[in-house]
Fold this sequence. Notes:
By secondary structure, the chain is mainly β. It has one helix at 26-33, and strands at 38-42, 45-50, 53-58, 61-67.
Amino acid sequence: PVPPAAAPPAPPADAPPKVLKLGMTMKQVKDSFGEPASIVELGSKVIYVYKDKKVTFMNGKVSDVDVK
């Protein structure tokens, strides 16, 4: 028989929730989600690319989020 798949470990109870909202700074996003897989810089527009989302910043603040 095949053993049941183990559930992914739960985050520690004291871990802060991952928050992403319009107006957040680049530092706040990195503090919540870590380093992005890649960064696209287009003048005043910067895009952080994560495996499951793209976060667009205008003038250093979140202006759009595209969840895959």
